[in-house]
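The pair is set out directly below:
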Amino acid sequence: MQLPSRGEWARRTPFFYGWVVVFLGAFSMFATTPGQSDSFALFINFFIETFDWSRTFVSSLYSAATLAAGILMFLIGRLIDRIGSKAVAVLSALVLGTACMLLSFVVSPVMLFTGFFLARLSGKGALDLTSKTFAPQWFLSRRALAVMLVGLGGSLGGMVFPLVNNYLIVTYGWRIAYRILAGGLWVLYVPVMLLLMINRPEDVGLKPHGKLPLHEKNDGKETSVSEPAFRQAQAVRTSAFWILTFVVFQSSMVGTGVILHFVSILGMGGFTMGFAAGVMGLKTLVSVLTAVLAGLVLDRIRRHHVVLAVTCLMQVASFSMLAFMRSATMVYLYAVIGGMAGGIAVICIGVLKPNLFGRRYLGGILGVTAALNVVGSAIGPIVFGAAFDALGGYREVILITATLPLLAGMLSFFVRTPRPRPDATA
């Protein structure tokens, strides 16, 4: 008896198969966490203490590895357009598991750099980027809801992994903890993706969900138009692309700098690693709850760029709380305000990019933003680490870098629907 094909499964499901793809996107975002700064934050002090390396040295290895990974993201985006999100996601998970296994055997700076590089390339970079292409390919309307549900996977990972990592490290040691993470990626994630993932609805004779969203013209009026299909070279010639990319870049730079050194930052205020892990989990929980609300509401709002501007200003407020930390209350306020800002911003960016530039070449377009996202996450840790070694604290660097989200918020008000230039080629 012949088993039904994956396409037949998709067509026979009593609901739109895109919701299965949304679940897989959320699962993929969750699986990126071992390569994210939220996870490394619990391991960074053990690298420093085990090998008696300075914070600046370890931060430099992390930043250099992240920067090298970021450069390759320009190619990853185009690879997604050529071979599909599914293949790139599976390959990324295999590499991320390998990175975790390598980090568990670290005995030298070269091994640490290589582990950092592979983890950042696959987790922070390729798998994260691939996950963000799933929902936009399957949904035209209700994109905000679909993007929100995918983002919940990353938020859940950010909430759970600090606590899980803390438990694994305390119970088994940091080396065994990394091996457990590797096994989870290889045994759980990869088989599920191979079995269930479908790149595009057109691949199995289906159509994307819903109708095209309204677009705002430069005169402020809204109109329904055909789906845009910007190539990468066309998108990068628009101001809207660079404003959105700068929002992502600065958030990654400042946010990663804070998160990677978060245990140290709170340690200067007399707080323990366990407390820091709990605050990281609280921030992610707030981000999850806010993202849920944003996903339900933003499909009914057309001026997403205005909402994005507000989130950048909230980001400034959250960093101010951390810079002038005097009590646990201020730390909690940082987590709540920052979590709200992050939860809304990720939905706004996830909806604006496909709405403005279309689905056809989305991988290549997101690849450019992802590259600068990773570059930002490379710069932040070294800046914060160097500031600590030079000044003995973090307040000054937090306040200076907080000017970046302020600028991003001001620029976000100027995002408008772009018009493609036919002379641009990919």
